[in-house]
Amino acid sequence: MVYLDKSGKFEPTADEVRFLCDRHFGIGGDGLIRLTRPDFVSDLSDDQLSDVLAGGAKWFMDYRNADGSLAEMCGNGTRAITLFAQREGVADSTEPFRLGTRAGVKILTPRGNMRPYGANVFQVEMGEWKIGETDAYEVTIPGTEGSARGTFVDMGNPHVVAVIEDAFASLPVVESLDLVTKPVVAPVIESDQNVEFVRVDDIDQSTGVGEATMRVNERGCGETLSCGTGLCATGIVLQAKTGISHWDITVRGGTLRVDVTDSDVKLTGAATLVADIDLL
Fold first, then answer.
1. Signal peptide: which range, if any (predicted)?
2. Which of 148, 153, 274, 277 could form a disulfide with 162 if both were Cys (CB 3.0 to 4.6 A apart)?
């Protein structure tokens, strides 16, 4: 869910977010995004605000998880809020859009319609990333036999990516995982994290492009159809394991492209506005 708050008068409370995102008693959603001016975001420090303004962002993605907690970033959310900003007339439909987030300024470039990614495609410059020791964590799912090895990636928010169906894994195939249940990561990471489970489907050495399938359990909301930062974290781990830097990754919400370099990662995918809702 997304909405425009030009005046800064409609910062949501945690209770309001939980109510709106509740799939039984509210509207239902993985989270709530307020598009507003950076100086209207009350939790930003002076340094964060200065960095966002210095990065040229006139608008800010104030993202909240479904449980009401603050989120640093949402890669898919950046595309949705940019399409919404275009519709509301605060973003140009043909020019790159500089969007402030709690993980810095992200630049979104409209790409139009692109196969196989869909319509209203944007490429997001997701910025710097950090990866930990490969396969340093054991990942299990309570109630499910087996485990997999996971790798920590910092995308501005924390991720642990487990490549399953390889020599280290004894979990079921990706499609059969129970991701309603929150995965357990050991040793414990100081902050809660998103956990991605991925399978390599194909690598074309002639083009340098790989294909993979991913599912994700996101902190604060459980399993989601897609996770933009999780897709980027997955591409980074797959590059570390295979040497391939370009990946078409299929999630339950569709197929997206991840391109990894030493200093940046780009995420390419579609955005769709599905409904207008009036709250009275």
1. none
2. 148
Residue 279 pLDDT grade (very low, low, confident, very high; cuts 50, 70, 90): confident
- Whether the Cβ atoms of residue 30 and residue 66 lie closer than 8 Å to each other: yes
Is 210:185 a contact under the CB 8 Å cutoff?
no
Q: In the chain, what are the domains?
A: 2-125 (3.10.310.10), 130-268 (3.10.310.10)
Please list, in sequence order, all residues whose beta carbon lies within 8 angstroms of the beta carbon of residue 18, skipping any fewer than 6 positions away: 26, 66, 67, 68
Q: Which of 74, 221, 227, 232 is catalytic?
A: 74
126 and 75 in contact (C-beta within 8 Å)?
A: yes
Q: What is the average pLDDT across 97-103?
A: 95
Q: Model-level pTM? A: 0.86
Alpha carbons 16 and 29: distance in angstroms, whole number: 13
Question: What number is the average pLDDT over the span 130-149?
Answer: 94
